[in-house]
Specification:
By secondary structure, this protein is α/β, with parallel strands linked by helices. It is 32% helix and 15% strand. The chain contains twelve helices and 15 strands. The chain is globular. 41% of the residues are buried.
């Protein structure tokens, strides 16, 4: 069976052809893998200099840790990613946790698109998998695989073959203007910016908007790239997964990437969309670092509020008792910290430490595991009940390794 979702209000989901369900047992056994973009660990978030930042930072850190504590997750605050620049490459490593292969060996170099000139394809690079160990293990255990994908990586196909039972593709372009506090001129400017940047020939639309503002009133600079608009309504995937868990039969695995906290900060801490004039990005040169961090912290709080709603919905539908949830960061807000390269622990904390958390229905209390492990090795450990390899990928002497573990 292949199911389709059509939401005339949001207009952001396409359904690809998908394989039929392989099993339909009366009682479900669910695994949910949620990967978060630009997501810090608790200690990274709480380590910001409090004298320079606002109370929103500490509130976001408390919301993060409180969510995992209240909902009986095992939280790994020191879990770190293998690549500190590309979140989607880290997703590739998460799906192939035991591999020693290079990215070139894990990814396809050539793919065929149904339509390159689709709005959602132009100007967006995407990774395509050759292998997917995580899916292989799920299939061996007779799981149906449900994918809720977005930008950056193709999760529904392996080696150019459809490999999942349901594939919901989220498309953030063009943006839906409903419920946005934005005038008609700004709507036109935003849509034009999306189109121009999607071609790949234009990077940075503000110079053109500056020219347009001389002729049209109410046109203002955007201060962000429209290619980051996948942040808008990104948590919708959580709503879809919760709905499907309530009705799906059999053993099912649900995998999604949530583009939050993301790189474009558009939500307040209650997930209300701010006026477009208040939107800012991590690379916005016209906004102070303190204001960026405040906006980022608000979006972290928004994200964990949505995750709390997700868990509450599973509780209301009675499905939380047989659902395992894995939540992992894909990258941190910082890819490089000036002056930190000489201190390996600070480099690890500031550029790679995303954290990972696992909820298992048979556990009745929260736990914090302080091991230094990569997110792929923790996922591998969950699949095969084995210990992670601490500080994997670092050529360290035993003396330095012991010092880092003590820190």
């Amino acid at each position: 069976m292949s199911e389709a979702y059509f939401n005339p209000h949001s207009r952001i989901f396409d359904t690809k052809a998908s394989l039929g369900d392989e099993n339909s047992h009366l009682h479900a056994d669910n695994i949910v893998l949620i990967a978060l973009q630009n997501s810090p660990s608790f200690y990274q978030l709480s380590s910001f200099d409090e004298k320079k930042d606002t109370a929103d930072i500490q509130q976001a850190a408390n919301n993060l840790l409180g969510f995992y504590q209240q909902n009986n997750f095992t939280y790994y605050p020191y879990a770190y990613v293998r690549n500190n620049n590309n979140p989607y490459l880290n997703m590739v490593y998460n799906l192939n946790p035991a591999t020693k292969a290079t990215p070139e060996q894990l990814l396809l170099s050539d793919v065929i698109m149904n339509s390159y000139w689709d709005f959602k394809n132009v100007g967006h690079s995407k990774l395509y998998l050759k292998d997917n160990y995580f899916f292989d293990e799920l299939i061996k255990d007779n799981y149906n695989i449900r994918i809720y994908e977005g930008e950056g990586i193709e999760l529904c196909s392996i080696n150019s073959r459809l490999s999942v039972n349901r594939c919901i593709s989220r498309t953030g372009l063009p943006i839906n203007f409903d419920n946005l506090d934005i005038n008609q001129e700004q709507k036109i400017a935003l849509l034009a910016a999306e189109w121009l940047e999607s071609t790949g020939f234009v990077k940075g639309i503000d110079p053109l908007l500056g020219i347009a503002s001389a002729f049209v009133r109410n046109i203002q600079p955007l201060h962000f790239s429209t290619q980051k608009l996948e942040t808008y309504n990104a948590f919708k995937n959580l709503e879809l997964i919760a709905q499907d868990i309530a009705t799906d039969k059999g053993k099912n695995a649900y995998i999604t990437i949530i583009n939050l906290p993301g790189n474009l900060f558009i939500y307040d801490n209650l997930c209300n969309v701010k006026p477009v004039s208040k939107w800012t990005s991590a690379t916005d040169q016209g906004v102070s670092l303190q204001e960026k961090r405040k906006s980022f912290a608000e979006q972290v709080s928004c994200l964990y509020g949505q995750l709390e709603k997700f868990v509450q919905k599973l509780e209301r539908t009675g499905t939380i008792g047989h659902t395992t949830i894995i939540i992992t960061g894909l990258n941190t807000p910082f890819s490089k910290i000036p002056g930190a390269e000489k201190d390996l622990f600070k480099e690890l904390q500031n550029t790679k430490q995303t954290g990972l958390a696992i909820y298992e229905p048979f556990k009745d209390q929260a736990d914090i595991d302080y091991r230094l492990c990569t997110t792929p090795s923790l996922i591998e450990g969950y699949l095969n009940e084995q210990d992670c390899n601490g500080l994997e990928g670092f050529p360290l002497t035993e003396q330095l390794r012991g010092k880092l573990f003590q820190e």
